[in-house]
Amino acid sequence: MLACGDSKRNVNAFEQGAKCDREVGDLKDYWRCTVTSAMYRKNGGIFSVGILLAIGLSILVLTTEIASAEGAPDLAILDITWSPTNIGAGNYVSFTATIKNQGSGNAGSFYVYWYIDGSKVDEDYVSSLGAEATTQVSFGWTATAGSHTIKAIADATGTVSETSEENNELSETFYVTPVVTPTLAPKTPTPTPTPKTPTPMPKITPAATLTPVLKIPTPTPSTISVKSASASLHGEKTDVVLGEDILLKLSAVNLITKPKMHVQVIIIPPSGMSVTSSEFSKSGAGQFTSNYELEPGDGKDIEVRIKSNQVGDFNVNGRIVYYFGDEKDKAEDYTLNLPVKVRKEPVDSAQNVQKPIPGFGVVIVIIGLSFAVFLKRRR
Q: Is the same domain home to 285 and 319?
C-alpha cells in the first residue's frame, strides 16, 4: 500500500487497473492505492521511477568500473632454489624463493614463512610489492643427512586480500648425503730431553742471570688450492689471554683466466665465542657469514676477530663456498680449520729464570781460598 496524499494536496494516482480507495479517519482525508505501475502524477507533472532506477544502475556500474580499474593483488611463489645444489651433511645451505605479484593492484606489506619438514624455521618481511613486480627472500640452514622438504608461504598471516590464494605456497624436496668423518691417526708424543747437569769450574765467576726466550709456535695456515681459485686461513694471533681477541686472516684469490667469482665465507668459532669483525653477520646456530665478489685476477683479505671467553685449546672452523659467473650448479664447498689457545693469565717470564744452585757460591769461595793458601806455601 502507498499513501498517495490527502485531499488538500490534490495528489492523484494513475495506473492501468490501479485500485485506489478514499478513506477518512484520524489522519484526515487521504487516498490509499495499490501500486504496481512505475508512474505517478502530481499537479499535472510526471515523475518516473524508471529515472531513479537508471541513476542507481549508473552509480553501481561506475563503482564497479572504479574498483576494476584499481585491481587486486595476486601473490605467487614462482620457484625455490638452493646453494650448493649437491648438499652434504653439515653444509651451510642458502635457500631463495622468488615471489611475484601477478595481480593489477599493490600487495602492500606481508610475511613469508619458511618450513623444513613441516616445522617453521624462519620468516621474512616484505614491505611492499607492486603490480607485476617480483622480489626474492632467502634464509640459511645447516644441513642434516636424509631427504627433506622445503616450503615457503607468501602472505602467511593472510593480511593481503588477493584474487587467488591457491598459489601462495610452494614446496620442494631435496636430499642431503651423509658425510663420513675420517679417523685421525694418534699423535706420537715428543720425547722430553733430559737436562744436563752443569760441571762446576775452579774459577770464580759472577753468577749470571739467565732469561729464557719463550718461543710460541705459529700454527701452519690451513690452505686450499684448486685450479680455479685459492683460499687460506692464517693465524695472526692464536695464543691469547682470556678476554683478548683471537686474530685470524682469511685470504681468497680468483685466477685471471676465470670469470667473476661469487664467494661466501662462513666462520664457525668455538662454542660460546663470537666473531666481532664488522664484515661478518650472524646467521644463526653460532655461524657468521660474509659475501663478496672477485673479478678475474683480484684477491681479498678479511680480518677475523673472535672474542675469547673461556680457557683451553680450540679449533676455529671456516668454510668457503664459491662459484663462477652464473654456474651456481657447479658451486664448490671447502672447509678450513685452525687451532687456537686461550690462557687464563699471561706467561710470567720470571718464573722460568734458571735459579743458581744453593751453596754453589760458597763452594767456589772455599776452592779459591784453598788455592790461595796453596800458592802462599809454595813461596
A: yes
